[in-house]
Design brief:
Largest sheet: 8 strands, mixed
CATH class of the domain at 4-91 and 176-182 and 205-262 and 269-311: Alpha Beta
Order of helices and strands: EEEHEEHEHHHHHEHEEEHHHEE
CATH topology of the domain at 4-91 and 176-182 and 205-262 and 269-311: Rossmann fold
Strand content: 15-25%
Number of helices: 11
Shape: globular
Bound molecules: adenosine-5'-diphosphate, magnesium ion
Oligomer: single chain
């Protein structure tokens, strides 16, 4: 049985501009210890997917109108707020893009990293702070014992993200959801943090959902990849499927717009033309149709379902496109 099974998840927001269909019938699963990347442009519904799994959708304006999120034998969508608070930070931990807004500026690093141990593991504060030193050492913060009394603003962006990782790992969660964990960091620090995350999730045996707009760098740390567009998964497969044999025109477009480290020749990068659709007024057929080079009449009227190509490689597209010749 998979560790996490998301089935038909559908999340909407009622806004002044109408009903925003942020996540539409999204299904994926995750095995123990596996890393799944969810990739897509800004506004494609990645964070709303994560927030739905974590029970953090603000109601109103948000509402989960359909779906199941099975985790360790329970449907998380049916848990009370109190039950979800027990799950979050313990069985499922999260890491967000901007550590400055997730860390409390008024509390010391020690108190924040020790908090999950104190709260979920019922350790005394002395024990929790000892645990915090060990965790800070794990994320390679130098001289961790002396940093317990420091405040978040005394750390660099990369160091704050390491603190967030330490907090997330505190209770050895089965699942970590990392939402654009390195987006605010420069490229070198980004690579260090991703390496660290990869190594520590492996050591702790945690599965990870790695959310990113960056198919180029970040998604390479994943075993499997889901590509999202306008609230739906348009292609999914192993990292080898998505990088080696992308089949959805949107994925092909993303691939063409990223720099490749393994190419000597300076290839011209081609951005995908056009804008993502308004999620409050989605076109009736394929949401990508207005931007697609392979569009046919059928695509404008009928919505392609996510269907298997081979094995676990799936795409939602009527056309038969491929990079292969
Ligand atoms: N609290 C909210 N109220 C209204 N709309 C929201 C809210 N949160 C997210 N949305 C909308 O949901 C859509 C998906 O957003 P999001 O999941 O944050 O995208 P991303 O893929 O960049 O993480 C966007 O159109 C966004 O405006
Ligand atoms: Mg987001």
């Amino acid at each position: 049985m998979p560790l996490l099974e998301v089935d038909g998840l559908t999340t909407r927001f009622r806004t002044e501009r109408g009903v925003v269909q942020a996540v539409d019938n999204v299904s994926f699963d995750l095995e123990e210890g596996e890393t799944l990347a969810i990739v897509g442009e800004s506004g494609s519904g990645k964070s709303v997917t994560a927030m739905s799994v974590l029970g953090l959708i603000p109601r109103p304006p948000g509402e989960i109108t359909a779906g199941r999120v099975m985790f360790e034998g329970r449907d998380l969508l049916e848990l009370s707020d109190e039950e979800m608070q027990e799950v979050r930070g313990d069985r499922i931990a999260m890491i967000f893009q901007e550590p400055m807004s997730s860390l409390n500026p008024a509390l010391t690093i020690g108190l924040q990293v020790g908090e999950p141990l104190n709260r979920h593991r019922k350790m005394s504060w002395t024990e929790s702070l000892k645990g915090a030193v060990g965790l800070l050492r794990k994320v390679q913060i130098p001289d961790p014992a002396s940093r317990l009394q420091a405040y978040p603003h005394q750390f660099s962006g990369g160091m704050r993200q390491r603190v967030m990782i330490a907090m997330a790992l505190a209770c050895q969660p089965k699942l970590i959801i990392a939402d654009e964990p390195t987006t605010a960091l420069d490229v070198t620090v980004q690579a260090q943090i991703l390496e660290l995350l990869k190594n520590l999730t492996r050591e702790f045996g945690s599965a990870m959902i790695l959310i990113t707009h960056d198919l180029g760098v970040v998604a390479r740390y994943a075993d499997r990849v889901c590509v999202m567009y306008a609230g739906r998964i348009v292609e999914s497969g192993t990292a080898a499927d998505i990088y080696g044999d992308p089949r959805h025109p949107y994925t092909l477009g993303l691939m063409a717009s990223i720099p490749r480290l393994d190419e000597d020749t300076q290839r011209r990068l081609v951005p995908i033309e056009g804008q993502p659709p308004n999620l409050a007024a989605l076109p009736p057929g394929c949401s990508f149709a207005p931007r697609c080079r392979y569009v046919t009449d059928r695509c404008r009227s009928e919505r392609p379902a996510l269907e298997a190509i081979a094995g676990r490689h799936m795409k939602a597209c009527f056309a038969n496109v491929s990079n292969r010749v």
